[in-house]
Amino acid sequence: MFIAVDVEADGPIPGPYSMISLGMAVAGHPELSFYTEIKPISEEFDPAALAVSGLDRDHLIRNAPDATQAMRAAYDWVNSLRKIGRPVFLAAPAVWDGMFVHWYFMRYVGTSPFGATGSGVDLRSYWMGLTGCEWVESRKGKIKYALNLEGLPHTHHAGEDAMELAQVFTAVLKHRAESHSAGLPQTE
Questions:
Q1: The pairing of beta strand 29-37 with beta strand 88-91
Q2: Three-state DSSP state, 21
Q3: pLDDT tens digits for 119-177?
Q4: What is d(CA 77, CA 40) in angstroms, rounded to the nearest whole number?
Q5: CA distance 66 to 85
Q6: How far, in Å, CA of 74 to CA of 14, rounded?
Q7: Residue 166: exposed, middle, or buried by beta-carbon count in 10 A (0-12, 13-18, 19+)?
Q8: Which residues on neighbouring strands pair with residue 2, listed in sequence order?
Q9: Which keywords does the record carry (predicted)?
């Protein structure tokens, strides 16, 4: 079970900077999603990074759950899905989102529902392996175009972007299954 994950952050790395929202959605199950905003954990932030999310830092400081509450809720949500499958982390890019998510789970919960290393699947790498395309052809926009999913917006709202990623990966898996059953080569 692939759990599409998206984060918004107010800087380039966790610790000195904060993950300010977290969204998760299960590929193939649009009814299964999770979203939380998170109170910043430090005074430092990059105004340009913060602006990407459109979130108000002062509002987050006053109203968002603290990192321990938010990550415990996220951990419990992921673990509740074990009754239907084994959760596998999915992101685009997995390096960025995974860095924040794993650090926050380890720091504020003490463990990650995605395993000790927090490893998972990267959309671009998966697409390259599936199609044999080059890195420059593996951007999410190019994948969406190849799969006729151009109407899916990317809004920089972690919950909405996690749902977008779940839809894209569901289409990627469908494409893979159709190509295998038809005996077609995987390249586009």
A1: unpaired
A2: strand
A3: 899 999 999 999 999 999 999 999 999 999 988 899 999 999 999 999 999 999 999 99
A4: 21
A5: 29
A6: 17
A7: buried
A8: 88
A9: Exonuclease, Hydrolase, Nuclease
- The amino acid present at 86, given as its one-letter code, is R
Give the Cα separation of 91 and 76 in Å (integer): 19
pTM value is 0.93
- Residue 10: exposure state from Cβ atoms within 10 A (0-12, 13-18, ≥19): buried
Q: 120-122 and 19-26 as β-strands: parallel, antiparallel, unpaired?
A: unpaired
Amino acid at 80: S
- Which residue in the list 29, 59, 102, 156 is annotated as catalytic? 156
Q: Are 125 and 156 in contact (CB under 8 A)?
A: no
Catalytic-residue membership of 156: yes
55-94 as b/e: b if 16+ CB within 10 A: bebeebeeebeebeebbeebbebbeebeeeeebebbbbeb
Distance between alpha carbon 67 and the CA centroid of its chain, in Å? 17
Q: Which two tokens stand for residue 16?
A: 């000195």
Handedness of CA 100, 103, 107, 108 (dihedral sign): positive
